[in-house]
Amino acid sequence: MTTTTTTTTSGGQPPQPSAEPQLIPDVPDDVSINCLSRIPRYHYPKLSLVSRSWRSAITSSALFTTRSLLHTTQTSLYLNLRINYSFHWYTLLSNCHSRKNPQKPIIPLRGLPFQPVGPAFAVLGPKIYVIGGSINQIPLNWMWVYDCRFNRWEEGPRMKVGREFAGAGVVDGKIYVLGGCVVDVTAQSMDWAEVFDPVTGLWTTVPSPVEVRLKRMHASVVMEGRVYAMAGRSGVVYDVGLGKWGNVSKRLDLGWRGRAAVVRGVLYCCDYLGNIRGYDVEEDDWKELKGEGKGLPTFVYGATMVNFDGRLCVVWEKKGSGKEVEIKCADIEVWKKVGGMLAGRILWSGVILKVPDGAAIVHCMAAEF
């Protein structure tokens, strides 16, 4: 006869098994989370294969909070593309500037249930905000929020008015949205500009004079606490700290074409010839970005760009073989030389995605978490 022996505790009760195994045997979980928080995020897909508990840990709010406290957050590039009349989202898995990994794995992400045409975009911490837009030419007051940490979309608080092709910018942790609404309707004109506070979850009207109320904005940036938005051959600027409105300078107006990014106080955009030009707000002057070393590639007009950890990241389309379009990316270190000239050095450049002919880049963003 087989005898089964049960070990009891000093109280006479059998020991209870642990509800969850430790992430690392004999190491407290808070210490393990601290260790995992120091590992670059592009290793996380492999780490998630270790066990179910590790997979849960690397997608936990505790880990991202620890990363923030340890200052080990990283910036990732996000792309929104239009392919065959539908919208697709992607992110680059590894650091754009890493030369050790010439291949830049790009991962498709969960998209919106439906994406309107002409929304404004804003990034605040680990979240991407898709604001307004239109469906069947009807402007919407909706806002969708994508949490990059958890690959999750949720509907945010709605604006006071519907907007399409509005300008947007983040200043002091709040999102300012300008224009994109019908200005000949009194109620909408009053709310021509709004500000969203993610702490309170409320939209508030920003008072604006009638003369700045343009309708559609084709580009917007933030420089030195001011939101700049361009509409055709004119543009407006709002100084958040002073609460004052004005028109952009004539030089800025003449040189700003298409989507732009601000790096180290200089606004960069692409001209009709495919060259990148930079506008220095202090000098009120445009200068061409000159390549150092191998020089800079020729971009296409309408290339989109973003500030990526203090560098200029440019994404553009190039005709590929057959019925394909190549989505290319360049990570450029930029600086101002003695005498005020602008210089740039390619850290990395290459094809990150191939898509069907007719596809187009809607927007690119950089989120840190």
Quick structural gist:
By secondary structure, the protein is mainly beta. It has 6 helices and 26 strands.
- Any idea what the shape is? globular
> Cα distance, first to last residue?
61 Å
Q: In the CATH classification, which architecture of the domain at 110-257 applies?
A: 6 Propeller
Q: Which CATH class of the domain at 110-257 applies here?
A: Mainly Beta
Number of strands: 26
**What is the makeup of the main sheet?**
8 strands, mixed
Question: Could you characterize what this model shows?
Answer:
This is F-box/kelch-repeat protein SKIP6-like. Pfam families: F-box (PF00646), Kelch_FKB95 (PF25210). InterPro entries: F-box-like_dom_sf, F-box/kelch-repeat_ARATH, F-box_dom, Kelch-typ_b-propeller, Kelch_1, Kelch_FKB95. Helices cover 11% and strands 42% of the residues. The strands form 6 sheets. An 8-stranded mixed β-sheet has the order 18-19-20-21-25-24-23-22. By secondary structure, the protein is mostly beta strands. The termini are far apart. Among the domains are: 41 residues, no CATH class; 148 residues, Neuraminidase, CATH 2.120.10.80.
